[in-house]
Amino acid sequence: MITYAAIAVAIAVPLARAGQLRANRLAVATALIFLTSAIGHGLHAYLALANLGQADHSVAIGWLWVLAWWNVATAAVGVYYWTVRRRQAPLRGSIYTGPHQQRLLDEADAHRATLEAVVEHTDDAIIGLTLEGVVTAWNGGAERLFGYTAAEIIGRSVAVLADEEGAAEQRDIRRRIIDQRERGVTYETRRFAKDGTPIEASLSVGAIRDRKGRPTGISVVARDITSVKEAAERRRAVEERTHQAQRMESLGKLAGGVAHDFNNILAIIVNYTDFATEEAAGNEALETDLKHVRSAADRAINLTRQLLTFTRGDTIQPRDVNLNAALAEVQAMLARTIGEHINLITVPSAEPVVVHADPGQIQQVLLNLAINARDAMPDGGTLVLEANAAAIDGDELDMQPSLPAGTYARLLVSDTGEGMTADVAAHIFEPFYTTKPRGKGTGLGLSTVYGIVSEAGGSLNVYSEPGVGTTFRIYLPMVTVPGTATPGASRQDDPPPGSGQTVLVVEDEPALARVVTRILAGAGYHVLTATDGRQALTLFRQHDCDALLTDVIMPEMSGRRLAEIIHDTHPDLPVLYMSGYSNGLLGTTHVLDGDIAFIEKPFTANDLLHKIAEVVPTAVRHSR
After folding, report:
1. φ, ψ at 548 (rounded to 5°)
2. Keyword Nucleotide-binding on this protein (predicted)?
3. DSSP-derived 3-state class of residue 313
4. Strands of the 502-506 sheet, one edge to the other
5. Could you give the CA distance from residue 445 to residue 578 in angstroms, rounded to a whole number?
6. Distance between CA atoms of residues 596 and 317, nearest Å
7. How confident is the model at residue 18 (pLDDT cuts 50, 70, 90)?
């Protein structure tokens, strides 16, 4: 009895000191076996002493049932012991912890506490779920990411973090992990914080399993990748803009190469059409046919100029332009072509409004906007062109691009047409964007307008309402001390005739050279014609010349190089360059240097004669 009791005490006291009376069931069951055995042996000893020297055994018979029932209790304790024993891992060492084992347990507890602290304070959200998706664990990272405290979210469905589509996605992931036993699933999705803010998140979802592999829960690690995706989107946008710039550079080179030859062809078509129109005077049917040819050529000229302006491949000639005069010129052009169903109104400024820009490009801006307005009014309407000055404070919305505060020249083009939705208006300046039917628009008109205006240092503002109409406001830097303002790109008055001046014409396109020769000779000039730079130098040395009219881009020797060679010996010789695409050969940029005379192909006879009259001396004066 004493031995069994000592063993029970030897087991129970260390358990109590270690605080394991409730936790270490196996040790407690062992102590109970020895305790019941000690009590059983004590009962046997008491029974033996009580019946010592007595003749009858009445006392023994009374205690017999007590012993029997106590043995049953001991057996029950034994059954409890083996039940606990089967659930435990094989015993290694003592059944209770001594000082060394306790130190190991303390270190394990410290490790567990450290791990819990790491989980609690990590930036990632770590969430525990039941198999049904109810939140059971919620760390500090989850609270910071989603805005819910642990007290608010534990016990609720994790579907509160997702919309309907996201909730269905969550159910599918849980089914894959639990039923299909996938090790883990990582994916990117959108979740929502407590205040409704969308969060782009990367989720890593896995099953929590017991020792037999049965799923008991789900673990989720969520990481906020909103900033990462935004950075990736910015990089993608930069790369797209870079690729766009590369594509536009390639398109510019292609457009420039095509424009050089195409503008030569158009110059031939336009001028021979004009020649034929003069000869067909009185033949109404033939005049009508030629008018259609010229109209088609004008459309081709306009499209080529749009491509060159859009790709910044053309050469512009900025000068002071009076917007009132430009309005009047555009009105005269539109009055013949816009159609009787459009009521055209021009409102010039009360005071002269002058800007420094290419007059042809100002005209192109007004014409492009006017044509778009006409197309937006198929059943008729009113088109208003207006010029004035306007002050802005620099805080205006929807200015493309933005402008600092100041006073600017302003052009307004308003129509009463179909108007645009906000979605359409947001894209109208994008290259090749058009709402017109296939074959009815190139998508370059408004992008060309934007390129011209921004290149001139100006800005645009668009206001439109479906069913009401559209107004374009164009702001350009105003010239406060203008010089001689030029009204537009071409002049309608008769040019002065020549008086026998000798003009050396250098053009590598023979048909165009014949056109130029015919125009100049018919106006009273003496013309020498060369097809390349070497032939031109030979003719110049053999003849006295009063001016040089040369193409810019030619095989072997450019027009600029030809002029430089001639100017080495005759620095005062006037030079007029002609080109449909100068490729930057006439200036440090695509803006024409101020001391260079230039005429853009395709040109009309009137344009050429006006320009040559500005360059060539008014009286016969040989430069040699």
Report:
1. -120, 125
2. yes
3. coil
4. 526-530, 502-506, 547-551, 575-579, 597-600
5. 25
6. 9
7. low
Maximum C-alpha span of the chain: 173
- pLDDT for residue 591: 52
| Secondary-structure percent of the chain, ordered helix, strand, coil, rounded to 5 | 50, 20, 30
The whole-angstrom distance between residue 8's C-alpha and the CA centroid of its chain comes to 79
Read off the tokens for 366.
Answer: 């007004």
Q: How far apart are CA 129 and CA 283, in angstroms?
A: 92
Cβ contacts of residue 234 below 8 Å, gap of 6+?
none
Is there a contact between 456 and 317 (Cβ–Cβ < 8 Å)?
no
Torsion of CA 397, 402, 408, 411, to 10 degrees: -70
Strands laid side by side in the 381-392 sheet:
342-347, 381-392, 406-415, 469-477, 459-465
pLDDT of residue 621: 42
Phi then psi for 524, rounded to 5 degrees? Answer: 100, 15
Name 67's bridge partners. none
User: In 311-430, which ranges are continuous DSSP H helix?
Assistant: 323-337, 359-375, 422-425
Query: What confidence score (pLDDT) does residue 92 get?
Result: 46
Could you tell me which residues come within 8 angstroms of residue 560 by beta carbon, excluding any fewer than 6 positions away?
552, 577, 585, 586
Residue of 403, 381, 384, 382 lying closest to 392 (CA atoms)? 403
- For residue 375, the number of C-alpha atoms closer than 13 Å in the C-beta half-sphere is 14
Q: Please return the burial class of 548, using the count of CB atoms within 10 Å of its CB with bins 0-12, 13-18 and 19+.
A: buried
Between 373 and 397, residue with greater pLDDT: 373
Contact 21, 15 (CB under 8 A): yes
168, 133, 135, 139: which is closest to 153 by C-alpha? 135
Angle (nearest 5°) at CA 477 between 421 and 449: 40
- Residues with Cβ within 8 Å of 459's Cβ and at least 6 positions away in sequence, in order, are 399, 400, 401, 402, 403, 453, 474, 475
Rounded mean pLDDT of the chain? 79
Tell me how far apart the alpha carbons of residues 187 and 204 are, in angstroms, rounded to a whole number. Answer: 7
Torsions phi, psi of 372, nearest 5? -60, -40
The number of angstroms, rounded, from the C-alpha of 537 to the middle of its chain's C-alpha atoms is 53
SS (H, E, C) 559-607: HHHHHHHHHHHCCCCCEEEEECCCCCCCCCCCECCCCCEEEECCCCHHH
Q: Which pLDDT score, from 0 to 100, does residue 575 have?
A: 92
Which is it for strands 342-347 and 381-392: parallel, antiparallel or unpaired?
parallel
Residue 583: pLDDT band with limits 50, 70, 90: low
Dist CA 524 CA 498 (whole Å): 4
Angle among Cα 253, 549, 514 to the nearest 5 degrees reads 90
401: preceding bond cis by omega (within 30 degrees): yes
354-357 vs 319-322, strand pairing mode: antiparallel
pLDDT tens sequence across 182-194: 778 888 999 999 9
Q: pLDDT tens for residues 506-517?
A: 998 898 999 999
**195-231: burial string, b at 16+ Cβ within 10 Å, e else:** eeeebbbbbebbbeeeeeeebebbbbbbbbeeeeeee
Joined tokens for residue 36: 């019941």
Radius of gyration over alpha carbons of the chain, in Å? 48
Cis geometry, peptide bond prior to residue 602 (ω within 30 degrees of 0): yes
* Cβ atoms 456, 309 nearer than 8 A: no
